[in-house]
């Protein structure tokens, strides 16, 4: 298990952002965390990274219910990024929705690795790091 | 010397004895009377007493006196001074002495002018009538033909006929066979004949003659036959032609069932042709040929009227043209149409009526059936529960039944001043006119559509229309028959049902939505609470993190509280609306809201126009209507386009039983392809605005729907947004 270079949280809820950051710090999850409040902000920033030749985060925690551009909107935009640039990116949809239709829809996207129902706990995050850090 | 004696006095003929000097020696009394002379002519000269005598007579006397002849008889005429012709007939005998010396003449003289005239007249008339004579001398087997007979046969004057030739002039076949038989019978039995036969003349002309023959029998044996020939060709041909015409007429009238009658008014004689008997179903022998005989054939109920028609016609009060019924002996009743003209004498007195009768029973029956079927059709038209109208080619109503009037709220008279175009819903007119044109163009004979009319009050009437073309006898279009089934109540019921279904669907949707809200919005708070709590319970959490977690805990609890409050608001809207609905003036309410947000409008430099009719009222809950208007106006301001001057227009539109409130802005616009589905969802915001809570449109939608309305949106990113709220009209 090795520490990730860069992770990303896309969520408009400050409490969730706070919680994720606390958990990542505890698990020494990543060297750097990028936080965005909605899908649009996130996609813009990620495209900027690519433009300057920087590396995309290896893990993205994506909320579904957000203003301006929600999780689905982000996924639709993200698919359009050339494959070779995003093949090493793993996306986890993190939502408070326990609606099964949301889970089914999310896993339809090949770059979505899993659907996690909030709240995220330490054990889940550790397991996840083990998978990604291989 | 002739003795001066009176011998001739009493002779029954006019006779005179003249001496050699032609002086009277003796004469009969008749002579004196005949020629108007006196007794003292004795001794006078004959020529002196009668100066105007035919030359032939003078010459004959001279011959006899000279002894050339002893007897002379002849007749001749002399034209006297006044120009008259006088015919004389005479016989002269020479009177000789015993020594044969001529002593004088005996003259029998008669004035035969009258007799001669008659003879002439007869000949003339025979010529004119073209009557010729003939005579067969059976003893000598000779045939004599008179001049006219020769002419009739068109043979030369010197033609010598014989019996065989005579017969051969008759036309071969019937005529020749008949004359041969008649002649034979005449010879054998002495029977006479009078017949009309055809001749073929020597020149080959066909000719009708009347042939009369009278055999003369002597001692039981026919010695000769005397007869006449008359050329009757013209009259015969005329007769034949007439017969043809009258046969034709009889045939025509018979086949047309027309009877002809003639009534001699003064004599009360009624003549019927054969057809008349057929028309009245009686035998000729059973008809007395008087007026009352006709009258008794007429059905008693019709007698008064038909008798009046006759007397009116005779009185000159109009033409005789009437219908009546007759009862046949077998009880059958027939309709007769009778027409006649009245013939009057020079004084204007009616002498005769000539007319025709025609059996019109079938026509009458057909007419009756037609009237009955028209009546029943009329009844069906008037009383049908289906609306019916006769519509002119230009679309105007010719006639409308009660049912249609009832559906449309117009009287039949009012409708007759309208056309279907006047009362058809504009959206339905085009298709109706297009189909009608197809009928006019002959592409179809009828069509059916569902369409809408406006009734007299301007309300929509849903109908099912069937239009059928009616043609004239010449094939041109005459008019249309429209059948109109009023489906308003059905459509309303179906709309109500649809409304109920929509309501149920929308309630199901809001239930789902509510479940989603509970699962998502409440869960996001509980998830946060759960996570924070785990931090607080974790011993490894640093002091700073602990402090931060407590702050977050408070925040999460507040969020949960707020969400529950919103949900409560929604539930309240759903539960309580029905009880508080009342008529609200949209105009007043909009003005109230505008007053409240005046500061906000000014601050953001929004140009706002309001156009709502003052009298317009909707059904609603005042607080909701206020909240809806407020929310839409504040949204328009909130999502204005900072790059241009804001314009907001508020207006209304009436459609049937709804009022649509329209709030239009020229703001940022919403990408409806992307967000349309969740625009009215809870906690949805789309512009990243700091004060967007994602609750306004959700509440608005719930409020509008709870008041029986609906909300829709049209928008284009960068151009602006229009919200349309449909309210129930008060």
Features:
heterodimer; A: 134 residues; alpha/beta; Rossmann fold; 5 strands; B: alpha+beta; Beta-Lactamase; 6 domains; seven-stranded mixed β-sheet; five-stranded antiparallel β-sheet
CATH class category of the largest domain in chain B: Alpha Beta
What distance separates the N and C termini of chain B?
167 Å
Tally of DSSP β-strands of chain A: 5
Task: Give the mean pLDDT of chain B.
Answer: 85
What's the structural domain tally of chain B?
6
Structural class by sheet pairing and helices of chain A: alpha/beta
The rough form of chain B would be described as: rod-shaped
Instruction: Provide the β-strand percentage band of chain B.
Output: 25-35%
Q: What is the alpha-carbon Rg of chain A in Å?
A: 14 Å
Shape of chain A: globular
Going by CATH, the homologous superfamily of the largest domain in chain B would be Histidine kinase-like ATPase, C-terminal domain
Question: Helices and strands of chain B: which structural class?
Answer: alpha+beta
**Beta-strand fraction estimate of chain A:** 15-25%
Radius of gyration of chain B: 66 Å
- From the 3D structure, determine the CATH topology of chain A: Rossmann fold
Please estimate the helix content of chain B: 40-55%
**Overall structural domain count of chain A:** 1
DSSP summary, beta strand count of chain B: 27
Residue ranges of chain B: pLDDT <50 for 5 or more in a row? Answer: none
What is this structure, in a nutshell?
The complex is a heterodimer of chains A (134) and B (730). With 134 residues, chain A is α/β, with parallel strands linked by helices.
Explain this structure to me?
The complex is a heterodimer of chains A (134) and B (730). By secondary structure, chain A is α/β, with parallel strands linked by helices. Chain A has one domain: Response regulator (Rossmann fold, 3-Layer(aba) Sandwich), CATH 3.40.50. Chain A is built from 6 helices and 5 strands. Chain A has a 5-stranded parallel sheet with strand order 2-1-3-4-5. In chain A, helix 2 (39-51) runs parallel beside helix 3. Chain B is α+β, with helices and mostly antiparallel strands and 730 residues long. Chain B is 42% helix and 29% strand. In chain B, a hairpin with a 5-residue loop joins strand 13 and strand 14. Chain B contains 23 helices and 27 strands. In chain B, the strands form 5 sheets. In chain B, strands 21, 22, 23, 24, 25, 26 and 27 form a 7-stranded mixed sheet that branches. Chain B has a 5-stranded antiparallel sheet with strand order 2-1-5-4-3, sandwiched between helices. In chain B, strands 7-6-10-9-8 form a 5-stranded antiparallel sheet. In chain B, helix 17 (488-537) packs antiparallel against helix 18 (543-576) and helix 21 (622-638) runs antiparallel to helix 23 (696-706). The chains are: A alpha/beta (134), B alpha+beta (730). At the A-B interface, helix 1 of A face helix 17 and helix 18 of B.
